[in-house]
Design brief:
By secondary structure, the chain is α/β, with parallel strands linked by helices. Helix content is about 45%, strand content about 10%. Strands 1, 2, 5, 6, 7, 8, 9 and 10 form an 8-stranded mixed beta sheet that branches. Strand 3 and strand 4 form a beta hairpin. It starts with a strand and ends with a strand.
């Protein structure tokens, strides 16, 4: 059986995501299972998800996915490189045969060529030298300049959000020596942070904007996913606006010493100190990120660092690969994958209590995620007791 690995956030799952899964399956002959690695309650752009990981996993499993595994907090809030490394490690360990990803270009060959170039040590050294020479030049800008000299206009693909992640996935697969056949699916409709684009699907960011504004999402969410979200809304488990958590996050940031900021992921080169100073001077999270920003550092990076500080992460948290694969949701086909994955290099985690037998590193990662969920729950209309992440097992989807 083909096993199509997909790295995702599904925040929320929409018709563009459904189309992507359908096209991945259509590209292959024979039976295919879809294995998703899903970010937890906080996502890589540096904010809380609209729905928690179990709700988003169930919506995905009712809409085309077969097995959904959590990408633990340290990797979900990492840079694109760390995010890809953690996710691909899980996909490889659980037997994925293909890697399905959205792409603005929709072509695998140029993305693979960019990935190969970025795996060469002299390429990275040239990028570092250019950043040192030109002061405020960002990594992304230096990367494009160096790769343009090597590969020409092909380097412009790294201006596209999905193509950037695709290159990181291909790099991670090569570094981990994973035999994954890439399936690049051209992205239709709106771009990553754009509104609707004609008849194509809206972006997830546009759907989140509509949710916050109280506007209709009719026609944009697949029926099976919307049924899951409707139940979550009725139960008070929808976080329409990440700003609902702002006071909780700010209170944690203001209590941290400077040294904690300097130990943050991406906190080197004085950026952690810049962020600590901004926390002392600004009253809103966005103002903190703006105050610490420079031409070299993107806002998304500062937002991730704010969350990392509030949630207890440091630069060591996302080293290597995740120590376990936590199961969030599965159907009958997904259960077959779980049986085949029992002897994988990364142990499966179905019952939270099992993590206590997996060693100190695994329990530390789980506790970080459980603490993050406790903070996440403070923004929900429903009143939830602490420790919920320790009590929740995977969602099993019956046959339909």
């Amino acid at each position: 059986m083909n096993v199509i690995g997909v790295v995702c956030e599904y925040n929320p799952f929409h018709r563009g995501h459904l189309l992507h899964l359908e096209r991945c399956r259509a590209a292959l002959e024979g039976e295919s299972a879809v294995l998703c690695v899903l970010s937890g309650d906080f996502v890589q752009r540096g904010e809380a998800a609209v729905y928690d990981k179990f709700i988003r996993a169930e919506a995905a499993c009712r809409s085309g996915a077969d097995l959904v595994i959590e990408l633990p907090l340290p990797w979900a809030l990492s840079s694109a490189e760390g995010f890809a490394r953690g996710a691909l490690g899980l996909l490889g360990a659980l037997g994925a045969t293909h890697l399905g990803f959205g792409s603005e270009t929709g072509e695998t060959a140029p993305l693979q060529e960019l990935a190969r170039a970025l795996l060469e040590e002299d390429t990275i050294e040239q990028i570092r030298e250019r950043m040192a020479r030109e002061g405020n030049l960002s990594f992304a800008a230096a990367r494009e300049q160096v790769l343009t000299e090597r590969l020409g206009n092909q380097a412009r693909l790294l201006r596209n959000p999905n193509d950037i992640l695709a290159v990181e996935y291909l790099k991670a697969a090569a570094e981990q020596r994973l035999s994954l056949c890439p399936l690049a699916v051209r992205r239709d409709g709106a771009g990553h942070d754009e509104a609707a684009a004609g008849a194509g699907p809206c972006s997830a960011s546009e759907l989140r904007r509509r949710l916050r504004a109280g506007e209709s999402l009719e026609g944009e969410i697949p029926e099976a996913a919307e049924a899951v979200y409707a139940r979550a809304r009725a139960e008070g488990r929808e976080l329409k606006n990440p700003a609902m958590l702002e006071i909780a996050v700010l209170s944690r940031l203001r209590m941290l010493p400077r040294e904690d900021f300097e130990r943050l992921p991406d906190g080197g080169d004085g950026l952690g100190l810049r962020l600590w100073k901004a926390v002392q001077e600004e009253g809103r999270l966005e103002d903190i990120a703006q105050a610490a920003k420079s031409k070299r550092y993107a806002l998304a990076r500062l937002r991730r660092m704010c969350l990392a500080a509030a949630l207890g992460l440091d630069r060591e948290s996302a080293k290597g690969l995740p120590p376990y694969a936590r199961v969030l949701a599965f159907n009958e086909r997904g259960q077959k994958l779980l049986r085949e994955g029992d002897a994988s290099a990364i142990p499966l985690l179905a019952k939270p209590a099992q993590v206590r037998q997996m060693g100190e590193a695994a329990e530390r990662v789980f506790r970080l995620g459980a603490g993050a969920h406790d903070l996440y729950a403070l923004g929900l209309p429903a009143q939830e007791k602490p420790g919920e992440d320790w009590r929740r097992g995977p969602v099993r989807i019956g046959d339909h």
